[in-house]
Each structure stands twice: as C-alpha cells, then as structure tokens.
Amino acid sequence: MSNEQGKIRITWDDVNKAEVEQPAPVATPVSRLVRPAGDGSWGTISTQPNAVAATATGGGSILLKGWFYLGAAGLVGAFVAWVFCEPSFEDGGVQGWGNVMLFPLMAILMCISLGTVESLVERSWHRAFLRGLASAGLGLVLGFVFNILANLIFGIFIMLFKSAGADMKSLASNPLFWLCRALAWAAFGMAGGLIFGIVSRSGKKTSYGMLGGVIGAAIGGLLFDPISLLTQGGEASRAIGMSILGASTGIAIGLVESALKDRWLYVSGGPLAGKQFVLYQDLVTIGRSQSNTIYLFKDPGILDQHATIEHRAGKSLMTAYGPVAVSGQPLQSHMQRTLSSGDMIQIGRYTFTYAEKERASKP
User: Fold this and answer.
1) Band of the pLDDT at 118, cuts 50, 70, 90?
2) Domain residues of the chain, as ranges?
3) pTM of the predicted protein model
4) What CA–CA distances, in Å, run from 76 to 109, 117, 239, 250?
C-alpha cells in the first residue's frame, strides 16, 4: 500500500496479507424451569408443547394403564366368585347353592372390584373405602337384577332353539348358541360398567362403562362354550370362562373410556407416571387432599388444593393456588391460563401432559 500525492492505493498484495477478524459467537438463551436440587428423577418440562402431544397416551408402567388394572380387577372379582361357588356347584341339572349364587355373586364382586380399583391405583384409600361401600350396596341389588335379566334372555333363546327342533345335547358346539350366550352374558358386564360410572359420579363415565361392559362380557360369553369343548370339564371351563368374562369386561371398559375421552391429563413424570386422568367434570380440583378429583401424594410442598381446571365455553382454564408451571411459564397464586393440547404442567414433583381431542372447525 502506497501514499502518492495524498492518494491511498491498495494493491493485491495488501489484500492477500489482510486478516479478517471473525465475529465472536453469541449465546442463545434457553428457557427452562428451575427445579429443587435432588428432584431430577421425575421428568422435565418441555418448552415446545406441541412436540409432546403425541406422547399424552403412551409410556409409563403398564400397571397404571386403565385397561390393565380394570381387566385385573374384573378377573379377580369373577374368579373369587367361582372359588366360593364351585364347591357347591352341581352338574347334570341338579341345582346346588353354587348354581344359584355363582352369577349374582360374580356380578357383585365384579362391581366392587371395578368400582374401587381406580382409587386404589391412585392411592386414595379414603375414596376407595367409600366407593367400595357404595359398590357393595349397588352390586348386591344390581347383581340379582341383572342375573334375572340374563337368565330371561338366555331362557328365551333356549325356547327358540327348542321350537326350532335343535338337538339340545349338541348346542354347545353350535356357534349360533355361542352368540346367544354372549348376548345374555352382556347383562353382567352392563352391571359392572354401570356401577363403575355411578360411584365416580359421572354420566359420561357411566355410559362408557356400560358400553365397555357389554362388549367385554359378550366376548366372555362367546368364548365360554368353545373353552368348555376344549377342556372337556365343567369345573375347568367355568374357572376359565368366568375369568375371561371378568377380565374382558374390565379391559373393554378401559379401552372404551380411553377411545371416547375428550380431555385428559397424562402423568408424564412423578409417582403416578403413566396414569391417565380423564377430565369428565366441569371443575377438576388438584392437590394433596384426598377429597380432590386428582390426589397428589408424597409431596408435602403441594397444597391441599393446589390448582383447578375448569371447563368453560369449550376451553380448559387452569387456576393456580400454589406454584405451577405450564410449558415452562410459572403461574403464581390465583393466576390463570387457558390450556392447549400438548401443554406440560408441573406441580411439585408431578409432571402432566394436557391433551384434548381435535374438533373439526365449523365451516
């Protein structure tokens, strides 16, 4: 580079020797929720709510899946009834005590087990006790009522088979007879599903429970005679058939409830990780007291009533009464926020994913 008569000249040698200073990198801030030390095992809050919407129904322990624990409850109720009645059950047309009580007792015990298992899974012992008492009373009445209904339906089908000249000794091998038994047994599932919803004080849950109960019990009835043909024994066929009836009833109730739900909270982190709370009520309370709709245990930092979710004008409005974070944004006492599907909610050591079904937009 030269300076001649006040002019600055730049040659190619000057350009090649020049050093360009690279700009310093700029750090991008990341938003995150600060959690207490030592509490990192319960999951984190995502700042991208839409990215987690697809996970609002999966993961977690299978023991906390509704279809699993309801199926197990139905199986236990039906099997215990068989255990009590089988010693007094008489084959060959003789009616013993077991013959008379098997189906009513099965319906009663299934009602009790289906009515209480959800509260037991949620560790709400007080609620489980109250629901157990209500289920026992309702089951005692409805067990006999629906047993009469099932026998009436089954008796009508038997009369139709007789009038058609069917061989009564070979009915067990007739698929049409299997279908008739399935329709009659559906009454027992209806009883279990009905009480499942009644003790939860939800009309939707009652209708979902009845639909699932009818489907599940019908499956059990459809399989009973084929199992009897395979086992070649009344005792074994009754044990397996009753167990399938109870299990299929509970599984179907859980699957129907999950398929038809509109709004729900999925526990993605915390002691109940994998549990799904379907939001049936217009006002859902959340907190440490067992009187809440959603009971959160093992966390003294959570208030007796820590938050509520109110369904209003098609939207879910969350109100915080204690520290709450929604998708990384903190809510202090009495602050409110409208929830969107995919929002991550953290209350103490619990992390939830809020989800709702997509609704077709009106033209």
Assistant:
1) very high
2) 62-260, 262-356
3) 0.77
4) 8, 11, 11, 10
